[in-house]
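Predict the 3D structure for this chain.
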Amino acid sequence: MKYNLPVFAALAVSLMSASVPSLKASEFDKKTIITISQPVAVQGTILPAGQYVLKLQDLWSTRDLVNIFNRDETRLIITVQPLHATRQESADKSDFSFYDSPAGQPTALRTWFYPGELNGFEFVRTQPMVAAASSSAPAAARKTPARLPQHTVAEDPHALVAN
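Done. Predicted structure below.
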């Protein structure tokens, strides 16, 4: 009996490790660190130059929500519900595209694709809250048509440096 105990223990450990999948938090929530050198608008909120963390909401029922946190993930800056976007070929790095912006206005985030995926997120272009509130022009006159996106691909699969 004392010889069988180590065999059973080894068998139990191997069965337990085989049935429990290995999960990486970054792949589940698509955690991506973005460093920007100039202000970027995300659906009406302006992010000043700095480092931010983009993550999908943790709840299974709300996987369409993207949370944007400060660098330390101690403060939620904005939660947005982007549209679904697709692309023809995946890349091994995070891929972001931006709307062209008029002079003096921050560039606006258009799409975000996580490394290795064909499905991503498209962010609706809206007027920044600060600019929209201070303008006396009617809302229809302030809208800027969307132009072709500028693409930036990150060197690190989970980080982007936008210039």
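The two ends are 68 Å apart (CA to CA).
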